[in-house]
Write the structure tokens for this entry.
Amino acid sequence: MDLLIKNGTIVSGGGEYCADLAVKNGKIAAIGTALPFTAKETVDAAGLYVLPGAVDAHTHLQMPFGGTVSADSYETGTRAAVCGGVTTVFDYAIQRKGKGILETVEERRALSDPVICADLAYHCAITNLGEKSELLDEFKKAADYGVTSFKCFMVYRKEGMMIDDGMLMRIMERAGETGILTNVHAENPDAIDARIAEFAAAGKKTPWYHYLSRPEFVEAEAVKRAIHWARALDAKLYIVHLACAEGVEAVACAKAHGYPIFAETCPQYLEFTRDVYKREDGRNFVCSPPIKGEESRAALWEALARGAIDTVATDHCPFKQAEKDWGKDDFTKIPNGCPGVENLYPYMLGAANSGKISFPLAVRLCAENPAKIFGCAEKGSLTPGKDADIVLYDRHKDFTISVKNMHSGCDQTIWEGIKVKGYPVKTFLRGNLVYDNGEYVGKPGDGRYVKRGESGIL
Ligand code: URP
Ligand code: ZN
Ligand code: ZN
């Protein structure tokens, strides 16, 4: 064997048990007690939890957006990921007018493949269907290439990224025929534009008005509309960054009727409330959808526990402080997005460690479920035959998050000063140690492109 991890507590989505784990050629070879193997390297994990590497199904790396480019490159974003126990990162390749789906993903892969520090999968965000709707004919090819989920932004009209209902309908129809999962960013653009115009005319420009221009009902309406189309067209649907209580209810109701509808939320919606927009640094929290009120925050936690929400991902899209400062006096100039890829697993495992949720649930939400929903057959659980993406976690190591101890390329974090109970101490990517007690010890290029199978099956 190449590696033996001994005496740890293995956590799966189904439970916790004491066992040893053996790795050969980057794969999990065996799990059991008293394994009859010797290995080139043995790690004593006594007192530690042994977890599958997390799968962050939602990031935006070096993405042109908001008049700049998000602050983490493929290298720094995936480096930060493995230092927080995320071994598979999903990036959104944004298709632009005149570009095909595969062309878009291949252009991004030319940037990412040589430098990634974690394994990387792509969703494609479709922003138009082409002059003759020719993109619809590419769906099957994209699926064969391993890109089996597409995102539709129901907002971002002025950014040229918005999909209207007619396009959404056509995308869902073809996605349904080709086994592709449609992801949506659900907010109502007309309501947002109307509010922004009102606030601009009244000189209301602080970050609090970012929240007021897109409050709970703006998101809830679009969630329900997306579910309506998915049900009508018999398409699978995944709602990204769900942040409002009414949306949770709509998802729960659709699930109860047996529809293949999945939902994701993010740590920022679980930790903070809209009050952050009244803080002096409120602009740093500006993301869309905005962080909502306490009622929604409580509903999201409750939804995790009852299975109404399937995954927790980050929507990692950091911007440097100087860029966030563009909107100091006008919230419409703040690039939308927050960092989080390095905080996802410590935050959710911290919630398990303090008894808010169970460890198996944290593993299902952050690893097993995203791997299953997005067709990553080799990822998401500690099972013989799967990739040896492994995190050793010390429940007793307390950690205070600061931009100084993160590994991202960004110079600010909304998580500054937040304390988590317990922290990852080692991350292995396909059996190779890439993070060790605060230090990144891998090398850029260690990561691989993840070719995915059919999406939308949990
Ligand atoms: O504010 C956000 N969420 N920025 C990233 C793009 C998106 O909407 O997911
Ligand atoms: Zn979004
Ligand atoms: Zn996003």
Remarks:
- The domain at 3-51+386-440 is CATH 2.30.40.10 (Urease, subunit C; domain 1).
